[in-house]
Design brief:
Chain A: It is found in: Nucleus. The complex is a heterodimer of chains A (441) and B (916). Chain A is built from 23 helices and seven strands. Chain A is α/β, with parallel strands linked by helices. In chain B, strands 2, 3, 6, 7, 8, 9, 10, 11, 12, 13 and 14 form an eleven-stranded mixed β-sheet that branches. In chain B, strands 16-17-18-15-19 form a five-stranded parallel β-sheet, with helices on both faces. Chain B has a three-stranded antiparallel β-sheet with strand order 1-4-5. The termini of chain B are far apart. The chains are: A alpha/beta (441), B alpha/beta (916). At the A-B interface, α3, α5, α8, α10 and α12 of A face α22, α25, α32, α34 and α35 of B.
């Protein structure tokens, strides 16, 4: 891609205009790279203070050999990992730090217990070659080995080690919190200089730590809580979609950027974006939205129109369960409606197949002219299908020995979802619709 | 026969011969020798007074080394005791004291122990087997051998300093048989032995070659004692010229021998007379006479026994056949030509070392003189002498006993490495010039020892036939002894390979890791690579302060814990001084200086031990958090105590043995068990053992335990464990604000970085919250950072850390993020929180299902004029809040049915939302 771009920039000298198709391809790839978080932003946006704090902290570890521990806390999608990556990138620009700093990346979802974590640490520190071809021993040996290694070092002579613990809270669930205790203990004693950086989205993470582990943690927390306003959010959208100055086709870039500007000023687009902003401030969901818009850009339509944004927004907010209801047979839909009425009558008490069937039969007797009764086995089959789709689920504990017909179930759908599905259900008989909307079965 | 000792085969101990003396007061009988036989096997080992032996210790692989000085039993015959002179192994000398040695100790080095009084009376049944001990000159290098069964003595150790030890006190040969020239200088003897390795044996198996080497010794020894005639030496030399593997070392040896024999006799006599000894000149004369006689007798015996050697080829029969068979192996090529000169053939086999040693020790005139006499003796004369001097034979017996178990070890096979042999021979030559000084000492030692043997002569006068028989028996004994040591020394490694010595399987008797051989990856210690650029030093006051305030920096002193320090110090000190054991339980919340105080105490005690105020002790430390399983505690303790590795069960057994068996020279051990509560197991056997060991009489173990909770013994320990822990308890109170202030001040140590008020604020705040000193230091450190990065210091701010900085740091660390998090949440998230509270109010419960809350949420959306969100979106909002733990949720697979709870107080939520 980069090569491609360099070819482009060479060509730029010759032709200021590229064929429209090529420009579109360029736009797509450039923006996708941006939206998929594959490229770090050049400067921290909205997190300058945190960036500085973390950078200083890690720099002191790398250069002065000062041991530290810090937690980066923030909701999902707030840019914790991005912050750390930016800091590391900036830190490693320093030759001195680059030469000395060792990094160990752990993830609580991958290293699910201390044994795996210790092996991973040993591997990442390239200590396994010290062991030679000896097969790595027991967990206990592993721990002793690593502690020994860390103990051997001292502040001034050993290379500092940066431990990055992603999903830090999961490490706190390991048995005895051995790993955390030992890492934090090393960071608080005169051994090899280490910095422990934990990344977590849990605000109560400190309460998870055992008191002796907690005491060893330095209590530095960097919170990433964005107090973003909608105007900033809009600006962000615009900057994310804008093309840079060095785009090969200047004319195209100009047009593209203008169109993005008009998009952001458009009322309906702004409405859709505000809805997103209200729902969630994190950039990851925004990126998903913009990605959907971007994928609608074609050669025939080389701009993002507000309609695209609305459509993308609709896709984002669509209700998953209601969509599933569209695929049900009319019998299954009738059963769902019967369940809804049962829920209304009994205020959310669980029901079983017989009750649902009775309710359905009542409807058939009273009002139906388009529906016919079905055999019990057919009803049963439809019921099971609903269970497989997890639209209904058995009540905990009742599944044991009762017959299928009498097993207690709960409906996993909200009324609004059922009504919405009925509105859109193709060729729904009117009497079924009326039955659904009537207050009592 | 190493596996005999390993398998705990039952040994039978019997006195040999009649008592030598009877002590009426104590009702004890003194004996000259003790026979050890292994049940089910016909062989026996004989231990005689003056021999070096291994005594069962707590460590099976590293038995204690001692020299028998007396063997005695009570009149019932049930109790067999031995009085011994101890030797300390390297592992028994505390590591701190080993530094005094000024060099790396050799793994096979032992120290003549002359420290404080220690039990030197041991149960004879704890004797394992004889061992070869060699004395080395102070400056002499350790022989380059891989013979694991030979131990070397250079220095004496009295628990304070190392001294060069005179060889006389070490070497056994001089003591039981004063007639012999002073003890063999063993070190030179080792290397020359390679030439002895049988030239003919090269194609044969190693086992055979070992035999040829080790068995024929008795004959040779006798021969050498019987002093070399120059002629014999010549013939020897001639023979050695025959051998294909003749080495320059042996040439050198024979040369020295010749030189020695050329010396004038009588030098030794004169020396003895002049030496400051208690014995009268007459005694000395007698002694000399005896020497001569003995030497003759030995020759006689050698000669008389040699013909049968040639005849009996079946090993393991009885008597001298066993030694004979290897001889015949070795000598087959030569025998045809040389006929009946087997005995003399034996001479080259024998590590000529013994002879050489004698020569070197005394500058060896005596062998020469004796040599003259023997040269003159014809076989007939010898017979005559034999008939006449029966008593001398008794001594001879002693001598045989004495030497037989020892020598085999010395002659264990080693490859004939030419280089090493050359090297060593040059060393020998050097030493020969240096040894004159030792004479006085040596002869002194001999004379003292002579007294011991006078009675034996008197008592053991029996008929010649008896003696002959006994001789035969002895030979078989020797065979056993020889075999024992030989097999014991057999390690599965190729012989003579230097590099492999560090890789011997851990089961070999001497499995000490030599710290100087790290080339094998197995013992390489892992280490974080060192940095290419040095760490930067603090540049300004704030950085300096930060470095000092880091928890890891070790302060010069520990303020505010003087009382606790004193208590622990006196507790441990008294236990060490008394040589008893005890437990102490230390509790306190984290960060109150428990571990730091104990470490400080240990530093002080170790310092005291270094300057000899208290006896030396081991300090080992384990941490419940730094092990993966409570039973690993055993492994870690054992490893720190003896640097051997074992499985948890085996380690427990070894430790049990170590702490329950009497070991006279054992030092006190101080064991710090940090995070005790993690050693809890269902049966609590780890804790039980830890607290039970100190109560053993011989354990000399002091256990200091640390945990957080004050009532841990009552809460988690069963009665028998709690009872053993005892009531020596100490609790560390959280620091008060004054103490915290003092701690920071003392750490800063006049580095002016903080305003006085700021310090007070920090310490008051922390004291109110937890009294955790770590927290206090961390806050101060953060405050210096904030100060550094705050706007460029205005002239008024003076660059010190002020109140504002400290306040900011405190806020950062102690303020809860919940409120900020709610403030920063998106509109829908905030609405959902309000919906949750509304639903709680409606239900009057603190819990609701998502469905219920969602209804409220929809309603609130309409109130706020927002477009109602779909169920999916609502669930997403709910999950996001759950991920931050603002809400507590059931697993998300329950969908709309999942129950929702608040993780923050409703007031906090309302406060945060109102402030918006």
């Amino acid at each position: 891609m980069r090569k491609n771009r360099s070819i482009m920039s060479k060509r730029k000298a010759k032709y200021a205009h590229l064929p429209i198709g090529e420009s579109i391809t360029q736009v797509q790839s450039m923006l996708r790279e941006r939206l998929c978080n594959q490229r770090l932003p050049d400067k921290p946006e909205g997190t300058e203070a945190q960036h500085k704090h973390l950078l200083e902290l890690l720099r002191r570890t790398a250069i002065h050999g000062e041991s530290n521990s810090v937690l980066i806390v923030g909701p999902r999608g707030a840019g914790k990992t991005m912050l750390l990556k930016c800091v590391l990138r900036d830190l490693l620009e320093d030759k001195e730090a680059q030469k000395s700093l060792l990094q160990v990346h752990l993830n609580g979802l991958l290293q699910t217990d201390d044994r795996i974590a210790l092996k991973e640490i040993t591997r990442q520190l390239h200590l396994e070659n010290v062991v030679g071809d000896k097969v790595f021993g027991s967990f206990a040996e592993n721990l002793a080995f690593l502690l020994e290694a860390l103990k051997k070092g001292d502040r001034s002579s050993s290379r500092p080690v940066l431990f990055i613990l992603d999903e830090f809270d999961l490490f706190a669930h390991h048995k005895n919190q051995t790993l955390l205790y030992n890492l934090l203990d090393v960071s608080q004693s005169a051994q090899a200089p280490i910095a422990v950086v934990g990344i977590t989205c849990r605000l109560d993470v400190l309460e998870l730590l055992e008191k002796r582990v907690k005491s060893r943690f330095s209590h530095r927390q960097i919170h990433l809580l964005s107090s973003l306003t909608f105007t900033q959010y809009l600006q962000r959208v615009q900057s994310q979609l804008s093309l840079p100055q060095d785009f090969p086709d200047v004319k195209f870039a100009q047009d593209w950027n203008d169109s993005i500007k008009t998009l952001c000023e458009d009322k309906s687009a702004e409405e859709a974006l505000r809805r997103h902003f209200n729902s969630s401030k994190d950039f990851r969901s925004l990126h998903i939205l913009l990605m959907l818009c971007l994928s609608r850009v074609t050669v025939a339509k080389p701009v993002i129109k507000p309609a695209d944004l609305l459509e993308a927004s609709r896709l984002c907010f669509v209700d998953a369960k209601a969509n599933m209801l569209h695929g049900l047979s009319i019998l299954e839909l009738c059963l769902i409606i019967a369940m809804k009425h049962l829920n209304d009558v009994y205020e959310g008490e669980p029901f079983n197949l017989q009750m649902v069937h009775n309710e359905f039969k009542k409807f058939l007797q009273r009002k139906s002219n388009s529906m016919y009764n079905f055999e019990q086995p057919v009803i049963m089959k439809a019921f099971e299908h609903l269970q497989q789709l997890e639209l209904i689920r058995p009540v905990d504990g009742s599944a044991a020995k009762t017959q299928k017909e009498y097993q207690l179930m709960r409906l996993m759908l909200d009324h609004s979802q059922i009504m919405e599905a009925l509105q859109k259900y193709p060729l729904c008989p009117t009497d079924v619709k009326q039955w659904a909307m009537s207050a009592f079965g | 026969m190493k596996y005999f000792t390993r398998l705990r085969v039952r040994r039978v101990y019997k006195w040999r011969g009649d008592p030598l003396a009877f002590n009426r007061k104590l009702k004890t009988y003194d004996y000259g020798s003790l026979a050890i036989s292994v049940e089910g096997l016909p062989r026996t080992t004989v231990i005689v007074v003056g021999q070096h032996i291994l005594i069962e210790g707590e460590d099976e692989d590293d038995p204690y080394v001692a020299k028998v000085t007396r063997l005695f039993g009570d009149d019932s015959g049930k109790q067999k005791k031995a009085v011994v002179q101890w030797f300390a192994r390297v592992s028994e000398v505390p590591a701190s004291k080993l530094k005094l040695l000024g060099r790396e100790p050799h793994p096979q080095e032992i120290f003549y122990y002359q420290g404080r009084v220690c039990e030197d009376e041991v149960n004879a049944e704890s004797i394992l087997r004889p061992v070869k001990v060699k004395h080395l000159d102070g400056a002499a290098p350790f022989p380059d051998s891989d013979d694991k069964d030979t131990l070397f003595v250079k220095m004496s150790w009295d628990s304070k300093i190392f001294r060069v030890v005179p060889s006389a006190v070490v070497d056994p040969a001089s003591e039981p048989a004063p007639a012999f020239s002073p003890p063999p200088r063993s070190k030179p003897s080792l290397p020359p032995s390679p030439p002895c390795s049988p030239p003919a044996a090269t194609p044969t198996s190693r086992r055979v070659s070992r035999r040829t080497l080790s068995t024929p010794e008795p004959a040779e020894v006798r021969c050498s004692w019987g002093s070399m005639s120059t002629g014999k030496v010549r013939s020897l030399e001639a023979e050695s010229h025959h051998s294909a593997t003749k080495l320059s070392a042996s040439k050198c040896l024979s040369a020295t021998r010749r030189k020695a024999s050329a010396r004038t006799p009588g030098v030794r006599k004169k020396l003895q007379l002049c030496s400051p000894e208690k014995t009268s000149p007459e005694d000395a004369m007698d002694q000399l006479l005896d020497q001569e006689l003995e030497s003759e007798m030995m020759l006689v015996q050698r000669l008389s026994s040699s013909p049968p050697q040639a005849l009996h080829l079946t090993p393991h029969r009885k008597g001298h056949t066993a030694p004979a068979s290897p001889l015949s192996h070795r000598l087959t090529p030569l025998r045809k030509a040389q006929g009946g000169r087997d005995a003399e053939d034996a001479i080259p086999i024998k590590p000529s070392s013994v002879v050489l040693q004698q020569l070197s020790e005394t500058d060896s005139p005596p062998p020469a003189s004796r040599g003259d006499s023997t040269r003159a003796t014809t076989p007939s004369r010898r017979k005559e002498a034999k008939a006449a001097r029966e008593s001398a034979l008794a001594v001879l017996v002693e001598v045989d006993n004495e030497n037989s178990p020892m020598l085999p070890a010395a002659t264990t096979p080693r490859s004939s490495k030419r280089k090493s042999a050359l090297l060593v021979s040059s060393r020998i030559r050097k030493q020969l010039h240096l040894l004159n000084n030792d004479q006085v000492l040596n002869s002194d030692g001999e004379d003292e020892d002579e007294d011991v043997f006078v009675p034996s002569k008197a008592l053991q006068s029996s008929s010649e036939e008896d003696e002959e028989e006994e001789e035969e028996e002895l030979d078989s004994d020797q065979e056993v002894g020889a075999k024992k040591s030989r097999v014991g020394s057999r390690t599965p490694r190729s012989k003579g390979k230097r590099g492999t010595s560090a890789r011997t399987p851990r089961k070999t008797p001497n499995k000490k890791i030599t710290p100087s051989t790290p080339q094998t990856p197995r013992y390489a210690t892992p280490i974080i690579p060192s940095r290419s650029l040095p760490a930067r030093c603090p540049a300004n006051v704030l950085e300096e302060a930060r470095a000092r305030l880091h928890v890891s920096s070790v302060p010069e002193s520990l303020p505010c814990r003087e009382q606790e320090f004193q208590d622990i110090y006196s507790f441990v000190e008294s236990k060490i001084v008394d040589g008893t054991g005890g437990c102490m339980y230390i509790s306190g919340v984290p960060g109150t200086g428990k571990t730091a105080t104990v470490h400080e105490v240990m530093r002080c005690l170790q310092h005291a031990a270094e300057v000899d105020e208290i006896p030396p002790f081991h300090f080992i430390e384990i941490n419940g958090m730094k092990m993966t399983d409570p039973h690993q505690a055993y492994v870690q303790i054992l490893q720190k105590l003896t640097s051997q590795k074992a499985t948890a069960d085996h380690a427990a057994a070894l430790l049990e043995k170590r702490f329950s068996n009497p070991a006279p020279r054992k030092e006190s051990t101080v064991l710090l068990v940090d995070e005790l509560d993690l050693l809890w197991t269902r049966k609590q056997n780890v804790m039980y053992n830890l607290f039970d060991w100190p109560t053993r009489r011989h354990a000399r173990l002091v256990v200091l335990t640390i945990a957080n909770t004050m009532d841990l013994p009552e809460r988690i320990m069963i009665n028998r464990v709690a009872s053993r822990l005892g009531l020596t308890r100490m609790s560390f109170q959280p620091y008060s604000f004054k103490q915290l202030q003092q701690i920071i001040t003392s750490r800063l140590n006049k580095v002016k970085a903080f305003e006085e008020d700021a310090l007070q604020l920090v310490s008051r705040k922390v004291a109110a919250l937890s009294g955790d000193a770590r927290r206090c230091l961390d806050i101060c450190r953060r405050a210096t950072e904030i100060c550094e990065h705050s706007a460029p210091p205005t002239p008024s701010a003076s660059g010190l850390v002020g109140m504002s900085h400290v306040m900011e740091a405190l806020n950062e660390m102690f303020s809860s993020a919940y409120i900020t998090a709610i403030k920063c949440a998106s509109v829908q998230e905030q609405l959902f929180l309000r919906a949750v509270i509304a639903e709680f109010r409606r239900l009057g419960l603190e819990e609701a299902t998502f469905q219920q809350v969602f209804v409220q949420h929809q309603a609130l959306c309409r109130v706020e004029g927002l477009q109602p969100i779909s169920v999916s979106e609502g669930l997403a909002v709910c999950q996001r809040l759950g991920a931050c733990r603002l809400l507590l949720l059931e697993p998300s697979r329950l969908g709309v049915l999942q129950r929702v709870r608040l993780n923050v107080s409703q007031d906090d939520v309302l406060y945060a939302l109102k402030a918006d």
